[in-house]
Amino acid sequence: MSNGNMNLTLKVWRQKNAQTSGKFVTYKAEGISPDMSFLEMLDVVNESLTKKGEEPIYFDHDCREGICGMCSLYINGRPHGPKRAITTCQLHMRSFKDGETITIEPWRAAAFPVVKDLAVDRSAFDRIQQAGGYVSINTGGVPDANEIPIPKVIADEAFNSATCIGCGACVAACKNASAMLFVSAKISQLGMLPQGQPERWSRVQSMVAQMDEEGFGNCTNTGACEAECPKEISLTNIGRMNNDYFSAKLFREERVHDHAE
Amino acid sequence: MSEFKQTFNSSLGKKLIMALTGLFLCTFLIVHLSGNLALFKHDNGQAFNAYANFMTHFPPIRVVSYLLYLSILVHTIYAIILTVNNRKARPIGYASAPKSPVSWSSKNMGLLGSILFLFIVIHMKDFWFKYHQDDFTGKSTHVIPFKEYKTDLVTGKQISARDLPPGDYNYAVFTEGGIETMVAKDLNQTVEIAFKQWWYVAFYVIALGALSFHLLHGFQSAFHTLGWIHRKYKPIIYFIGTWFFAVIIPLGFAAMPVYYFFFG
């Protein structure tokens, strides 16, 4: 095309709500600029659907700069599409070929039920966080900044884990729909720092118990999560979580009562 | 639920059981391979038959062997439990084939494991069960005949190896006038017969190929599950898992049927 714009065919999962079953519907996306982001392309499609009086495609989005973790979308067999270390909102249409057919699906996991179309309910992650993904700080006099010494390597490693935006791409990519990369990143970012120590051994037990209760699958160390994570969270976090969990269960005083008790 | 049950019923607990039984089975492979190297000795099977008798009669080894059978079963059962859970975690699959860059073996551990389980059943039926059949049934079926070896203790050389006619024998070693006589079940003959069939050799080679890919992922994965993984020594674990467990061990085992088929 003379202006470099693209024409695409979209196969989009449409589902009314969690109770009904969905199906793929094919749409044409015409005159798409290669410089648009993937979500902007969907905005264009939705605009035309609205004008035609059809229901627009529902999808999650918020900041559109790769930091909020709201956008999802399983594009052509990969969470957040074909590029490495970016979210869907950072994916540009130049990553696709003119005339290409793009299949767009929601995250697939029992623990992430579809709300509508491509939007899934990720509150399972919130409940895991609430189970132990925090540090308790007692109020009082304001401490001096940098009062607690933290080695740079530890600070860096904890920060790497903390870059997890909780988008759920790890669950979507995992062949077992396991949430262990997310959970281990949240455990690591606190468990490695001095402020996280008092709750370290109960945190890992509570968060793993909640993860199991939510119905996520079991890690087989395949590494699809690490490959697809927009923040490149390392598989080492899972090893660290396992280590902490077995230490806590077998050698520590902290006990966490499960719901069956 | 007790603390203990809670731990082992958790996702990580079940994975721990998979890792521990898997690594135990890995250590067994080392013993099994090194012992079976006796098959390459040109001594009419004397060393191999003595080794087979030792492995089945030495009490500590018998205890370990029961642990081994248990490990195979537990590893299999937990693999099924975890797979069922994993399927439940994604009731509706993706329409487009997943394209995430992952190793082939890590995606197909269940298939590879199933091939290995079938192999273990056939392998044990044809060697282990035949060897023990008379002990189990209490009858002398002579499925595996006995053989008598005479060795000159001064030179250390084998003087004679003689197939014994069907009859009631027991494993025995005695020395008379500087000559050692050993009477043992001739499992070596069973091996020779089995490995003369091309399809049997092919099945073994395929199964050992499956073992290679199973261990290529399984060995390092077990360390991941145990949490004993760190970038400081991760390369060592990967090196051992790849070159020792996925290459040397399967090649060593595969060499036996191939050697017996062509040169035995």
UniProtKB/TrEMBL annotation, chain A:
<dbReference type="InterPro" id="IPR025192">
    <property type="entry name" value="Succ_DH/fum_Rdtase_N"/>
</dbReference>
<dbReference type="InterPro" id="IPR006058">
    <property type="entry name" value="2Fe2S_fd_BS"/>
</dbReference>
<feature type="domain" description="4Fe-4S ferredoxin-type">
    <location>
        <begin position="155"/>
        <end position="185"/>
    </location>
</feature>
<dbReference type="Pfam" id="PF13085">
    <property type="entry name" value="Fer2_3"/>
</dbReference>
<dbReference type="InterPro" id="IPR009051">
    <property type="entry name" value="Helical_ferredxn"/>
</dbReference>
<dbReference type="InterPro" id="IPR012675">
    <property type="entry name" value="Beta-grasp_dom_sf"/>
</dbReference>
<dbReference type="InterPro" id="IPR036010">
    <property type="entry name" value="2Fe-2S_ferredoxin-like_sf"/>
</dbReference>
<dbReference type="Pfam" id="PF13183">
    <property type="entry name" value="Fer4_8"/>
</dbReference>
<dbReference type="InterPro" id="IPR050573">
    <property type="entry name" value="SDH/FRD_Iron-Sulfur"/>
</dbReference>
<protein>
    <submittedName>
        <fullName>Succinate dehydrogenase/fumarate reductase iron-sulfur subunit</fullName>
    </submittedName>
</protein>
<comment type="similarity">
    <text>Belongs to the succinate dehydrogenase/fumarate reductase iron-sulfur protein family.</text>
</comment>
<dbReference type="InterPro" id="IPR017896">
    <property type="entry name" value="4Fe4S_Fe-S-bd"/>
</dbReference>
UniProtKB/TrEMBL annotation, chain B:
<dbReference type="InterPro" id="IPR034804">
    <property type="entry name" value="SQR/QFR_C/D"/>
</dbReference>
<protein>
    <submittedName>
        <fullName>Succinate dehydrogenase cytochrome b subunit</fullName>
    </submittedName>
</protein>
<feature type="transmembrane region" description="Helical">
    <location>
        <begin position="63"/>
        <end position="84"/>
    </location>
</feature>
<feature type="transmembrane region" description="Helical">
    <location>
        <begin position="105"/>
        <end position="124"/>
    </location>
</feature>
<feature type="transmembrane region" description="Helical">
    <location>
        <begin position="12"/>
        <end position="33"/>
    </location>
</feature>
<feature type="transmembrane region" description="Helical">
    <location>
        <begin position="236"/>
        <end position="262"/>
    </location>
</feature>
<keyword id="KW-0472">Membrane</keyword>
<keyword id="KW-1133">Transmembrane helix</keyword>
<feature type="transmembrane region" description="Helical">
    <location>
        <begin position="198"/>
        <end position="216"/>
    </location>
</feature>
<dbReference type="InterPro" id="IPR011138">
    <property type="entry name" value="Cytochrome_b-558"/>
</dbReference>
<keyword id="KW-0812">Transmembrane</keyword>
